[in-house]
Amino acid sequence: MDARGGKALRRAAVVVVTTLLLAATGAAMADAQEHEPGLLPEGDWSEEQMMAAEELVMLTEEQLPTFDVAPDELETLGYVNFGATAPGGYDHWTNPEFLEDDHILDPMHPESLVFQYTDDGGYELVAAMFEMRPGDTMDDIPDDIAWLPGWHAHPDICADENQHFTGFVDENGECAVGQPITIPMMHVWIVDNECDHRFAGIDQGGLICDVQGHPGGGGHGGSSTSSSSSSPSTSSSTTSTTTGPTTSTTRPATSSGPVAAQPNFTG
């Protein structure tokens, strides 16, 4: 199947799921007077958008823990460690096979997983990082989900074909090894974080709280500062429609365990 056909299938999947989700959430909207705090960042959200975003968060909370396994099991499932730990102790694991499939915003087919080192020496699954396909840009995000907060790319960070960190771009925006990360992506958290919403981003500066949209193909949209607990950044506004997550199949049972420290981001 060519790239155009693959994108068409992915957009069709989003349309079908959006229709089903809105049918389900629409029935509940009559009874919905308040929304659970701490899920969406502040913004001028419609009722349907709030319902759809909350549904995505709740579905991710329910299904993503299937992947809360030890590092050797993550590798068995096809995930590879990005190889750089962001401030705050965040590691990303990416599944190259899931990057190429027809699932979008599917917590049973998450393109990347975010784990965090805990104070007691543990290694906790905290978020999914959903991604479009390699070669996609911000313009390829289906309209039904483009409004969701947190879509971004990392054109200043380089990675090789095996999804391993290789450094940062030079003054010309080029990588000595690998390519700039231009795939659109967004995080959905299954635990609370310092941003007080579940769509926070992560970059080499740490946690990114201001994720009201994507800045037209760039990063999170502003400079970030790092500390031991991470710091927020800025971003621009986005568009408006509605959608929700896709359905999926089951995965192996869960377990957990610590992992050896990975190298930190270095400039």
Task: Explain what the structure shows.
It is a single chain. The chain is globular, with a radius of gyration of 18 Å. It contains 5 helices and 9 strands, in the order αααββαββαβββββ. Helices cover 22% and strands 19% of the residues. The chain starts with a helix and ends in a 59-residue tail after the last strand. It has one domain (3-208). It has a 7-stranded antiparallel beta sheet with strand order 1-2-3-4-7-5-6. A two-stranded antiparallel ribbon has the order 8-9.
Short structural summary:
With 267 residues, the chain is an alpha+beta fold.
Which percent range describes the beta-strand content?
15-25%
The total of helices stands at 5
What form results from the Cα inertia axes?
globular
* End-to-end gap: 39 Å
Order of helices and strands: HHHEEHEEHEEEEE
Radius of gyration: 18 Å
The portion of residues assigned to helices is 10-25%
As for the number of domains, it is 1
Number of DSSP E strands: 9
Task: Decide which structural class fits the backbone.
Answer: alpha+beta
Output the strand order for the largest sheet: 1-2-3-4-7-5-6
Tell me about the biggest sheet? 7 strands, antiparallel
Q: Which regions have little confidence, pLDDT < 50, spanning 5+ residues?
A: 15-33, 213-263
The whole-number mean of residue pLDDT values reads 76
Topology of helices and strands:
Elements: H1 3-29, H2 47-63, H3 71-76, E1 80-81, E2 90-94, H4 96-99, E3 112-117, E4 123-131, H5 143-146, E5 152-159, E6 165-168, E7 179-189, E8 201-203, E9 206-208
Antiparallel strand pairs: 1-2, 2-3, 3-4, 4-7, 5-6, 5-7, 8-9
Helix pairs in contact: 1-2
